[in-house]
């Protein structure tokens, strides 16, 4: 049986529920999509990008490939196009499994649709434009679900949310929320200490 069968069923059944941490998106929100791409292996790998340090928004942060939709684009088309533009992913290698509910991201003004997909193995990928993407990461579910990796991320001003600390890497914000939901609905989540709070390192905190 595929390691992704539970996730596929959860997407089909709408098990994730609404992703409304920041409330409902206003009418002026811009549509966007991100790609949550996993390999269909005994220990699936998840694709992430490290945003370039010189970007005006979310510089240096770990994120899923994605961005704003072009006129008339579906979320799937947006997510696959952005992944191709950012890391050279061939859309022909990808099978879409479904979508998580849209999520409003006030910091960027986007209403984001997470598109979940699989491919057979983690082929080497590299940044297409180093001015946009500094690095490509493929992290294993065993790493991401490890209770030692899981923390509650905090920032000055009172924000608290799921976080993932892997050595000198730190995943937080919308990416961590989506990853948290994915682990839960797929049945990969392990019990972890939500009272373990870790401030987001400055390297990953730039607006």
From TrEMBL:
Q: Enumerate the InterPro entries for this protein.
A: CoAse, NUDIX_hydrolase-like_dom_sf, NUDIX_hydrolase_CS, NUDIX_hydrolase_dom, NUDIX_hydrolase_NudL_CS
Question: Which GO molecular function, any one, fits this protein according to its record?
Answer: manganese ion binding
Q: Gene3D superfamilies, alphabetically?
A: Nucleoside Triphosphate Pyrophosphohydrolase
Among the Pfam families in the record, one is NUDIX
Q: Which residues form the Nudix hydrolase domain?
A: 29-160
Record keywords, A-Z: Hydrolase, Magnesium, Manganese, Metal-binding
Q: What biological-process GO terms show up in the record?
A: nucleoside diphosphate metabolic process
Q: Which cofactor does it need?
A: Mg(2+); Mn(2+)
The entry's family comment says: Belongs to the Nudix hydrolase family. PCD1 subfamily.
Matching PANTHER family: MITOCHONDRIAL COENZYME A DIPHOSPHATASE NUDT8, NUDIX HYDROLASE
Q: Under what name is this protein listed?
A: Putative NUDIX hydrolase
* Species for this entry: Arachnia propionica
